[in-house]
Amino acid sequence: MITVGKTVPFDVSRIRSDFPILHRKVNGKDLIYFDNGATSQKPQVVIDAITEYYTNNNANIHRGVHYLSQLATTQYENARTIIQNYINAPLSQEILFTKGTTDAINLVANSLGELFSSGDEIMISAMEHHSNIVPWQMLCERKGLVLKVIPINEAGELIMSEFDNLFSPKTKLVSITHISNTLGTINPIEEIIAKTHAIGAYVMIDGAQSIQHIKVDVQALDCDFFAFSGHKVFGPTGVGILYGKKEILDKMPPYQGGGDMIAKVTFEKTTYNELPHKFEAGTPNISGGICLGTAITYLAELDLDAIHAHESELAHYAEEKLLQFDGVRIIGTAKNKTSVVSFIVNGIHPFDLGTLLDKQGIAVRTGHHCTQPLMDFYQIPGTVRASFAFYNTKEEIDVFIHAMERSLNMLR
Ligand SMILES: *Cc1c(COP(=O)(O)O)cnc(C)c1O
Hints:
38% of the residues lie in helices and 17% in strands. The protein is of the alpha/beta class. It has a seven-stranded mixed sheet with strand order 4-10-9-8-7-5-6, sandwiched between helices.
């Protein structure tokens, strides 16, 4: 692998050489991978770390006195520290390993949610992923809580004056996405966090689409919870992170019971382990956790500002080219946006377009992107979504635009 340090200028062809899958063919064509919003590709260092773990280091953690168990435990706990440092969390105990963002949100909904009572209110937004809607709906049903939704405008931006009006003395928690997976909108979470704390409620940030694009500092943000998925930050699937402030996590009851989360078990009474183990019942995804640490180390070596500039340039270029076709409408035109380009074409079903693009080696997402209420707002069945990562190039967009032209000619 070629090491890319902050002193080395951002060089997309060097970065591409770190990602073996980008060099394969699909349907006889060079793969063009524009589905980074759904999952990211993995650099060779992460792939190697998975093999290394199972080849040389595999053992269960936190239990054994034997050499390998201690080695695996050290590596797993090192990964926790790497992630703690990356998001600037004060304590490693505040970094909980989960299965992903969905699991992290369910943890908070089930555990913190136990502290809420009938009539209390939870606030989300109109652009949430299903995983930041359904766990709260389930909680509301179970505990008699009320779910309120911050509306958006046509551009796909939160209507902040409405947000202020939705607060009540009963507001207990605001859970909001940092960046929309469907629209690319970057939400003003600093303002949301400050206003929510001013009335004494908690704030949870769904960071599934942000940490791979912009620098996240949980202390500067002052959010109470921040969740993300390993597989969207160039790491493995089946592992993710929930950051939570210690004083809140300490008040929360355990989410799941089992091994590792206990201090002492008798049939009369069980006492719980301290953080983070209280929330990590059972044997975790050990390899996943360690290799997420590898992925974060890889990301930390890149210049995030240069990445942001490169990805913005790609998104602007793609939007400009797409708008040259008749009948194209971009869904999500917020002023503050990341590298997601969702669009529809008059009279053409997103699925048909996606299928023809796939035949030409181009991977885009089609459908509702796990945001059905958002599709209802725009009164569309779905979009075609091209979502870019730092390893994508302008040349790939040129090929994509050419493929669009061919596909539209066939469909019209
Ligand atoms: C992908 C995504 C999720 C869910 O993440 P999982 O990895 O499927 O648990 C939640 N929110 C947003 C904004 C996402 O993009």
